[in-house]
Amino acid sequence: MIEVKPMEYEAVIGLEVHAELSTKSKIFCSCTTEFGGQPNTHCCPICLGMPGTLPVLNRKAVEYAIKAGLATNCTISLFTKQDRKNYFYPDLPKGYQISQYDLPLCKDGYVEIETENGKKKIRINRIHIEEDAGKLVHSEYGNYSFVDYNRTGVPLIEIVSEPDISSAAEAKAYLEKLKAILQFIGVSDCKMEEGSLRADVNISVRPKGSKQLGERTEMKNLNSFRAVYRAIEAEVARQIEVIKSGGVIHRETRRWDDAKGESYPMRSKEDAQDYRYFPEPDLPPLIIKKELIERLKNELPELPDARKQRYISEYGLPEYDAGVLTSSKELSDFFDEAAKVSTNVKAVSNWVMGDMLRILREKNMEIAEIPFSPAYLAKLVALIDKGVINGPTAKKVFEEMFDTGKDPETIVKEQGLEVLNDESVLLEVVERVIQENPNSVADYKKGKKKAIGFLVGQAMKATKGKANPQLINELLIKKLEG
Amino acid sequence: MKLHEYTISQLHDLISKREISVPELTRYMLDRIESLDSKLECYITVTEKQAMEQAEKVQKMIDEGTLNSPLAGIPMGIKDNICTRGIPTTCASKMLSNFVPPYDAHVVKKLYDNGAVLLGKLNMDEFAMGSSTESSHFKKTKNPWDTERVPGGSSGGSAAAVAAGEAIYALGSDTGGSIRQPASFCGCVGLKPTYGLVSRFGLVAYASSFDQIGPLTKTVTDCALVLNAIAGHDPMDLTSSRRQHPDYTKALVNDVKGLKIGLPREFIDDSVQKDIRDAVLNAVKVFSDLGAQCEEISIPIMEYVVPTYYIIALAEASSNLARYDGVKFGYRAANPKDMLDFCMRSRSEGFGTEVKRRILLGTYVLSSGYYDAYYKKALKARTIITREFNKAFEKYDIIIGPVSPTTAYRIGEKINDPVQMYMEDIFTVPVNIAGLPAISIPCGFDSKSLPIGLQIIGKRFDETTVIRAAYTFEQNTDFHKAWPSLNE
Questions:
Q1: Which of B21, B79, B140, B184 is catalytic?
Q2: Of A48, A278, A281, which has the smallest distance from its Cβ to B366's Cβ?
Q3: Are the C-beta atoms of A23 and A219 separated by less than 8 Å?
Q4: Does residue A419 contact residue A412 with C-beta atoms inside 8 Å?
Q5: Is A320 in the same domain as A268?
Q6: Out of A52, A57, A93, closest to residue B202 by CB
Q7: Is B208 on the interface with A (CB under 8 A)?
Q8: Residue B313's closest chain A neighbor by CA?
Q9: pLDDT in tens, chain A (482 residues)
Q10: Where are chain B's structural domains?
Q11: Are residue A411 and residue A326 in the same domain, yes or no?
């Protein structure tokens, strides 16, 4: 008998990422791109597509898109054009979206990601510019809807990856990397919750090792990195299940319901829209000058990967730490500022990655909302290193800094938190502790050396945590053994 | 001579010499519209109140010496697809019957800056789709030379108003002949400028890569005066040219000696009405007698110009007219079942037959599976046609021919034969395909005493030579002096 090994499957995943560019004005008019605002207050006849109006391309949007292309190793097209993508929807004022079809602004790039399985290059097929649509707001009181055109005409880039991604973890790493890059170069704030970063995921599965691609589905309505991760896990499992039970995957668009952790078919291939792309006659082709590309290249700041390398080589940080610190521009900038004025960068790194991220999480705060300057963190570390305060006190001071924004030195002085180093004072404390804890003392003397820990703790408590624990330890041992 | 028969330059003289005031002139024109327009139906909206206010204001500025334009105080009309702030701009469509733009088109702003007095908005084919002004949702404009006949189109209201003296001049728009053909049918002067010379901002788009605004006037001199005012770069229209335009009145020179003129034999073949052919050949003789060198040439690609034009124009139109979905402005269907029904019925009820036909055709040629066979091929043909004309212009300064193969036809005569109507655009559409400037000027009358237009086509941005040739022809002929009787 031949033993049949169960078939193993692998996932093939590609991402289409939309990022809103953080230009001040919209892509074809001078309206603000600011998020929020009363409905229909950030619009004008041009972005409302009123009869007779014409689009005027925002040069900044093109420059931002080129920067995104350069930062993701793309080739920038010297000749490119815009096209109309035609479809009807009430949130699309002109009945077409100005996008790019066959000549995208950027093409053939890649980003490098890192997961548990090591490093991997994810190729980028293209990055093109287009305009965002408005938003439908469904009435709570009746069978009708409202349209808010504030978002209409906000510049977007669509970043289309090759199907190089093979797991949810890789997809998440890719998204995180894209987000970090776009934030670092300052072209998008990438806030998924505000919709300034959105991802659609194309997923198919195939027998492991097969060269042929399986039929794919497209997943929409993914509003967080977590949703992307979960939707991919669920969809890969669903497709394998369908195939294993003899079924066939149909090309379709599915909608992810994050609350239920399930997806539903939205429309099949048969309902696929025919967008009737054709060149936008209101906008002449774009000739991109090499000098412009050079200038933008020179304007690019240090990218996440380069900064990570610098943290490793210059500061001697472990690769993992360097990776975490460069995962977001704000975090990395905060660390950089603190590290610049610190003699103990490793400790600064630990504080940032540990207590700082924990407090931010607990307080539900953004890095931008931190009320003190990064230099104060460096100061805090210096206070510990100089022995002015001990570790536990430092934690308290750090919390206090988040509440008041005060200089750690001021906090220490105001509250008298300096470490007690005065041996005569500490000796008194030690003697009292020995007197009050005969049992522990007996244990210690019987050879239970661990009991010393309890006694140190008692002494610390008696000094409200201010004592130098090292000194307490020494004094205790001297007393008990002497 | 009556006031409405005066040209812009003559009226400018009268106003300058204080022989007439702007309010008097405006009142006279409004009264003329009042008495005549029930018969001719040139206007969709008459802006009497605004016109009188504007007239008073302009007169004050003239008196104060702060306004010194040849157009100051001259009453005019504007085709109803050119946006006028606070004044309905309907495109002669039910769809936009309630649309009042909160902005002026670039050309309107420029005319206002020159002290122009707006009398009202002129009738046209719905969304400029047609060549007889019969597809207007509101009314059928009559040809002043024979009120049983069409004025041509789509700028039929503009041409008829100028020809009948219901406006001293008018603005029209020309996508495939919509200024020149009605100008020829009504016996006035109509210029389609080079694509990009005049800003399209505020012109309700039909086919964006062809649309141009231009003047309809009584004389070539008036044409140059209006063109001076409306031409020039507009940062709001990225397809408008940055080049400095010349003073077109400098081209008003009565001299064509040595001018090289090409007459394509395809423009005077048997498909053209005989008296039109004769009139064009007579024009050739006039030019030759004045020292121009006229030669017959061939543009063999002519058989492809109509399909090429219609494929590209309607593709663009299908997209340009997608914004009329009932959501933001314009006609909205009552009691929709759902979103799809809302959009579909608003469009079905708001657009007329010809507009729907063109949207469907345009949608078809862009559809997947047909794109390559139609749209893409038409783009290639466009390149070749443009090249053919540019090649001809290497040897010739201007190309002349008829504007239309027929003179004005009877109302209702062709409206049910769209293909026939499309085919008659054959001499005007290549000019739009290649983005060239071309003028229609009166060059004769047919056996029924209907006006015949001569088309003079020039090189890109060479309006100067076109105007010089037209002016010379006008100075040496009397056709432009004739007036329709109108049983007045």
A1: B79
A2: A278
A3: no
A4: no
A5: no
A6: A52
A7: yes
A8: A281
A9: 566 666 789 999 999 999 999 999 999 999 999 998 999 999 999 999 999 999 999 999 999 999 999 999 999 999 999 999 999 999 999 999 999 999 999 999 999 999 988 999 999 999 999 999 999 988 888 778 899 999 999 999 999 999 999 999 999 999 999 999 999 999 999 988 888 999 999 999 999 989 999 999 999 989 899 999 999 999 999 999 999 999 999 999 999 999 999 999 988 877 778 999 999 999 999 999 999 999 999 999 999 999 999 999 999 999 999 999 998 899 999 999 999 999 999 999 999 999 999 999 999 998 999 999 999 999 999 999 988 888 888 999 999 999 999 999 999 989 888 887 788 888 888 888 888 988 888 888 888 888 888 888 888 888 888 888 888 888 888 888 87
A10: 3-259+397-481, 303-378
A11: yes
Contact of A15 with A174, CB cutoff 8 Å: yes
Are residues A284 and A332 located together in one domain of the fold? no
Residue A431 within a domain: yes
Contact pairs from chain A to chain B, CB under 8 Å: 104
Cβ <8 Å between A284 and B105: no
Q: Is B241 a catalytic residue?
A: no
Residue A287 in any domain: the answer is: yes
Strand order in the sheet with A83-86: A96-99, A83-86, A278-279
Given a contact cutoff of 8 angstroms between Cβ atoms, the answer to whether B21 and B59 are in contact is yes
**Domains of chain A: total:** 3
Please indicate, yes or no, if residue A311 is contained in any of the structural domains.
Answer: yes
B47: nearest Cα among B120, B136, B150: B120
Name the residue in chain A with its Cα closest to that of B82.
A52
Query: Do A402 and A428 have their domain in common?
Result: no
Do A90 and B343 count as a contact with CB atoms less than 8 A apart?
yes
Do A281 and A159 lie in one domain? The reply is: yes
Q: Which of A454, A426, A442 is CA-nearest to residue A480?
A: A442
Chain B contact present for A285, CB below 8 A:
no
Catalytic residue among B93, B131, B155, B178: B178
Tokens found for residue B180? 């020149």
Same domain, A370 and A344: yes
Q: Who's near B291: CB < 8 A, 6+ residues apart? A: B256, B257, B258, B259
Query: With an 8 Å Cβ cutoff, is A40 touching chain B?
Result: no
Interface contact B102, partner A, CB < 8 A: yes
Residues A102 and A232 in one domain: yes
Active site residue B57: no
Chain B: residue whose CA lies nearest to A92? B323
| Interface contact flag, B323 A95, Cβ < 8 Å | yes
The residue from A292, A310, A332 where one domain ends is A292
Tell me phi and psi for residue B173, to 5 degrees.
Answer: -135, 150
In contact, A217 and A239? CB cutoff 8 Å: yes
Number of helices (H), then strands (E), in chain B = 15, 11
Please give the ipTM for the structure prediction. 0.96
Give which of B78, B90, B240, B327 to mutate to test A binding, by max A Cβ within 10 Å. Answer: B327
Q: B178 an active-site residue?
A: yes
Question: CA–CA separation, A474 vs A480, rounded Å?
Answer: 10
Name the residue range of residue A408's domain: 302-415
The CATH number of the structural domain formed by B3-259+397-481 is: 3.90.1300.10
Across the interface, whether the CB atoms of A284 and B238 are under 8 A apart is answered yes
Q: Is A379 on the interface with B (CB under 8 A)?
A: no
Closest CA in chain A for residue B342 = A90
